[in-house]
Amino acid sequence: MVGEEGAFVLGWDEVLTEEELSVTLKVLCMSEEEFKEYKEQDGWEDDSEEEENSTLSNEALSRLKTPCKKLLYDSVLLTLESYGADMKAEQDLLNNKEAYEKLSRREQQALHVRYGQKRILHQLLELVQ
């Protein structure tokens, strides 16, 4: 369901791997009985217009059913925990010109990437609260 990388790709405005996330949320939020029925009915094929019209924009994420929101929220918290430093520490480093310039070019780029990823994850937390 998740693909080779085992991760979902989130952008500022929408989920870029929306099909994978939609199917994953749908399946993980099903009861065992619903899952059996879904599988028996070849539910893995496109689910008609329901999924065709379900772009996972930020607005759509905020309207997800409560179990899906909870699952996403908990997943985002786990992902944020996997980062070493918190977002505030990295923001402080970005704002401290002297400390920032002591970093190698590669460390600076990594800092920008991590900080951007955390901002997107925090945005997602707000959307699914």
Automatic annotation (TrEMBL):
<feature type="domain" description="Rubisco LSMT substrate-binding">
    <location>
        <begin position="4"/>
        <end position="121"/>
    </location>
</feature>
<dbReference type="GO" id="GO:0008168">
    <property type="term" value="F:methyltransferase activity"/>
</dbReference>
<keyword id="KW-0539">Nucleus</keyword>
<keyword id="KW-0808">Transferase</keyword>
<dbReference type="GO" id="GO:0032259">
    <property type="term" value="P:methylation"/>
</dbReference>
<protein>
    <recommendedName>
        <fullName>N-lysine methyltransferase SETD6</fullName>
    </recommendedName>
</protein>
<dbReference type="Pfam" id="PF09273">
    <property type="entry name" value="Rubis-subs-bind"/>
</dbReference>
<feature type="compositionally biased region" description="Acidic residues">
    <location>
        <begin position="43"/>
        <end position="53"/>
    </location>
</feature>
<dbReference type="GO" id="GO:0005634">
    <property type="term" value="C:nucleus"/>
</dbReference>
<keyword id="KW-0949">S-adenosyl-L-methionine</keyword>
<dbReference type="InterPro" id="IPR015353">
    <property type="entry name" value="Rubisco_LSMT_subst-bd"/>
</dbReference>
<keyword id="KW-0489">Methyltransferase</keyword>
<dbReference type="InterPro" id="IPR036464">
    <property type="entry name" value="Rubisco_LSMT_subst-bd_sf"/>
</dbReference>
<feature type="region of interest" description="Disordered">
    <location>
        <begin position="38"/>
        <end position="59"/>
    </location>
</feature>
